[in-house]
UniProtKB/TrEMBL annotation:
Pfam families: TetR_C_21, TetR_N. Residues 1-22 are annotated as: Disordered. The keyword DNA-binding applies. Keywords: DNA-binding. The keyword Cytoplasm does not apply. Residues 21-81 form the HTH tetR-type domain. Coiled coil: none annotated. Residues 44-63 bind DNA. This is TetR family transcriptional regulator. SUPFAM superfamilies: Homeodomain-like, Tetracyclin repressor-like, C-terminal domain. InterPro entries: Homeodomain-like_sf, HTH-type_TetR-like_transc_reg, HTH_TetR, Sco4008_C, Tet_transcr_reg_TetR-rel_C_sf. It comes from Streptomyces salyersiae.
Amino acid sequence: MPSSTDPGQTSDAAIAGESADSTRQRIVAAAEEEFARHGIAGARVDRIAKQARTSKERVYAYFRSKEALYAHVAERETTALVEATQLDPTDLPGYVGTLFDHFTARPDHYRLITWGRLELVEPAGSTAGRLQGTIAGKLDQLRDAQRTGLLDPAWDPVDVLALINQIAMTWAGQPEIAAAAADQAVAPSIAARRAALVAAVERMFPRPD
């Protein structure tokens, strides 16, 4: 059975007589969908249990509370995002394209993380530390690029990171405009939306020759 280090989780050793892998995976998958759709306050453990083909009691055997379950899901999603979107400070347009691709392929991820930002004072579980460490590492990369002449030193690295992240999430954060673009944009494809973001960042932070 898998081990657990998430706050609020029950040790798998305490869950006897069940195929822990399959049940736990179904619970987490159902929770991802539930939290992305309804947020933390609006999510219901009974719906998660039904979707996972198990009982509420079994959900609580793995995760002591709804908040602990959200913390686990948020940490998984954050880890997936960090691993999928490594920063190359010499190719910020490419980084924005990678972020765009991630959120286009996983729209539920953006909604799930946004719910946490709206409803929680601090990120859930160990997500806060992971995010701060990732941000600090990216800022160090940007500073190094400025010191070696690969990035304009006139910019504050924190502004660079905030701007390119926000640009990358332009369409994920504005689904109503994305819907309008499908009918009214000169080039309505997703590829055209991606190209526009990449071009915007290329103008702001051109790749070094």
